[in-house]
Amino acid sequence: MGEGQTVHLADDDEDDRMLIKDALQEANPNLTVIEAENGKELIENVKESGDLSETVVLLDMNMPKMNGIEAIQEIRAEPGLSELPAVMMSTSSNPELKKKALAAGANDFIVKPNTFKALLDVAKSILSRFLGKK
């Protein structure tokens, strides 16, 4: 898979997914982004992946079928996936949502930025924090 670095991105909003993917790939052109529309699809994609050593999961809080909290709880319950870095995203800055996400096992919680420049900064930060080397 490319340079081996992968982001599993789950968001039910197609426009958000496209913008986030664009920002991630601008931050690292060699990055593979695997998209999902909901938590169930995300879990299936992650389980079908081979080597997850250079992988981070980026998921929206509110999605149909399986929301972000449920998806992270399922990831944390899987023996081979329990250490997989996962970052929750939301349009809401409600501190209760952040608490719930972190309690469910998210490594971080970010409020979706409203400009592409800010989104690019967030993408760079996530990649350097969880995937380190480029």
UniProtKB/TrEMBL annotation:
Alphabetical keyword list: Phosphoprotein
Residues where 4-aspartylphosphate is found: D60
Domain of life the protein comes from: Bacteria
The Response regulatory domain, residue ranges: 6-127
Xref: Pfam families: Response_reg
One GO BP: phosphorelay signal transduction system
Gene3D superfamilies, alphabetized: 3.40.50.2300
InterPro entries recorded: CheY-like_superfamily (IPR011006), Sig_transdc_resp-reg_receiver (IPR001789), TCS_response_regulator (IPR052893)
Alphabetical list of PANTHER family matching this protein: RESPONSE REGULATOR RCP1 (PTHR44520:SF2), RESPONSE REGULATOR RCP1-RELATED (PTHR44520)
Protein name, UniProt field: Response regulator
